[in-house]
Write a structure and sequence with these properties.
It contains eleven helices and 21 strands. The chain is of the alpha/beta class. The strands form four sheets. The chain has a nine-stranded mixed beta sheet with strand order 13-16-19-18-17-20-12-3-21. Strands 4-5-6-7-8-9-10-11 form an eight-stranded parallel barrel, surrounded by six helices. It has a two-stranded antiparallel ribbon with strand order 1-2. Strand 1 (10-13) and strand 2 (19-22) form a beta hairpin.
């Protein structure tokens, strides 16, 4: 298909404004002291780590997905702070790329986008009775209802703010997660139809979610399609006329044309990551990863053969070598499960995490390669310089690339390239 720091260490600078730790005794082969700055105030700080987000890649990915969607509209899913990329700038970039809808999980996420002035149709689907339904209805946020209580909550909010609620009814078609099961669907539809007739709401969508769209050809996809069409038919026979039927995630958008209906909901692909990694990589699908995660070496030192490294000494050096300390750890989202396995790029060469990933740091065995405090370490990116991708970290940690990018924590600043979307300041 195509598609630990020695006693002699002190703080020195490694480039403009970068405060790092370096070894300042003698420097054996492969270890550089790094530049020592002149005394005086530091003009600006260089972050010890950062996630660079390419907004041009976001726009291009969304444009590619619009092409793949054909006549269907595109909802860019920006839940979980846009999969760790930054919800507001990504939302604006996605709209500039051709998306006409935005999707989030929680109501607070939707309200934050509205408070930032992000326009467009906006759906929130993972809701609870304790959410601020009044604020959401007042802000024109479209809401999901998969049970009668949610319809009643929407009606109460509509009465409170004197504005009809906009609802998408969720059908359980085989995922076994949210939505009304087949035996409860008629009750949900009838309740929504009555509330619509009374003027309290409008049913603007019927939707569901696929369980195994990342396995094109799996028979469950055909069964869910049949169940979804049946649910939509029941809604229409009850007098409902939704604007959109929607079922497809990223994988289905790219590989299952019959599931596109009126609207598709890509998430992972918006960020340039393949939703079907066993079949095709990002480039084969016409996508470009938007996040590059980098750090700067905090310490570089020479150690003898047999040196245990990090907690538990799960790694020991095979010979005299250089160790580099990277100031990122599982508190920043680096998976502890990638201990001994996570790949990085330093000075054009790939290395693997040596020993256990700690809360704030991990170690690299750099061998005899020249290295200095402040040197850049690329954990993942689009691959332009031969660096690993998020998918490589996913394989190392036995997880999915969604988790790798989404888990990058708030201690890691986001910087943006590729221009801003209209209205983004």
């Amino acid at each position: 298909m195509s598609f630990g720091i020695p006693r002699e260490a002190e703080s020195v600078g490694a480039g403009p404004g970068a405060a790092v730790t370096a070894v300042v005794d003698r420097h054996p082969p492969g270890v550089s002291a790094g530049p020592v700055p002149a005394a005086g105030p530091v003009a600006s700080a260089t972050p010890h780590a950062q996630a660079r987000i390419d907004l041009a890649a976001i726009r291009a990915n969304v444009s590619r997905l619009c092409d793949a969607a054909g006549s269907a509209e595109v909802m860019a899913v920006v839940k979980a702070d846009a999969y760790g990329h930054g919800a507001v700038p990504v939302a604006r970039a996605a709209l500039a790329g051709g998306a006409t809808w935005l999707g989030v999980a929680g109501m607070r996420e939707a309200l934050a986008l509205r408070a930032a002035g992000v326009p467009g149709r906006l759906l929130a689907w993972l809701l609870t009775p304790g959410d601020d339904w009044n604020a959401a209805v007042a802000a024109g946020v479209e809401l999901s209802a998969g049970a009668p209580w949610a319809v009643r909550a929407a009606v109460r909010a509509a009465q409170a703010v004197d504005r009809p609620a906009l609802l998408h009814l969720e059908a359980e078609t085989g995922l076994g997660r949210g939505g009304a099961a087949a035996g409860a669907w008629q009750t949900l539809v009838d309740g929504a139809a009555a509330a619509e007739a009374a003027g309290y709401l409008r049913v603007v969508g019927v939707w569901s979610h696929l369980a195994r769209a990342d396995e094109p050809g799996h028979p469950s996809c055909a069964r869910q399609l049949e169940n979804f069409r049946g649910a939509a038919g029941i809604a229409r026979r009850a007098g409902l006329a939704p604007d959109v039927l929607h079922l497809s995630n990223s994988a289905a958008t790219l590989t299952l044309p019959e599931a596109r209906f009126d609207l598709v909901r890509p998430g992972l692909a918006v960020y340039g990551l393949s939703p079907v990694p066993d079949l095709a990589g990002s480039a084969e699908l016409g996508l470009r990863p938007a996040m590059t995660l980098t750090a700067r070496l905090a310490s570089v030192k020479r150690v003898p053969a047999g040196q245990g490294v990090s907690y538990g000494h799960r790694y020991r050096t095979a010979r005299e070598t250089t160790l580099g300390l990277v100031p990122l750890g599982y508190a920043d989202g680096v998976p502890r499960h990638a201990s001994q396995a996570g790949p990085v790029l330093v000075a054009g060469r790939q290395h693997t995490v040596a020993g256990t990933v700690c809360m704030d740091q991990f170690v690299l065995d750099l061998g005899d390669a020249p290295a200095a405090p402040g040197d850049e370490v690329v954990l993942f990116g689009p691959g332009d310089r031969g660096e690993p991708g998020a998918a490589d970290w996913a394989r190392a940690a036995h997880t999915i690339s969604h988790e790798i990018v989404t888990r990058i924590g708030a201690r890691v600043p986001r910087t943006y390239t590729g221009g801003s979307a209209p209205g983004d300041h």
